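ESCALATION

Customer reports they have been waiting on this structure for their group meeting. Please prioritize. Original submission:
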Amino acid sequence: MNSEYLKKLVTVPMPYGKYTGRIIADLPGNYLNWFARKGFPQGELGQLLALMQELNHNGLKHLLDPLRK
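Update from on-call: job pushed to the front of the queue and completed.
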């Protein structure tokens, strides 16, 4: 895991889809789980979504709170 990705989770908006413009860290768990079932997109976006899904699934989303400041 790239530590820079943690910062990106709280700054990068979702570029397309139902939640366009929403910060990746703020995407709902069911949306992230949908990607996990259907397949994450290629590239950095897919890696960010997979990381966020893993954090959310394991109840670790609160670890991003200090990075939001």
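Sent to customer with the following note: The chain is about 45% helix and 0% strand.
Escalation resolved.
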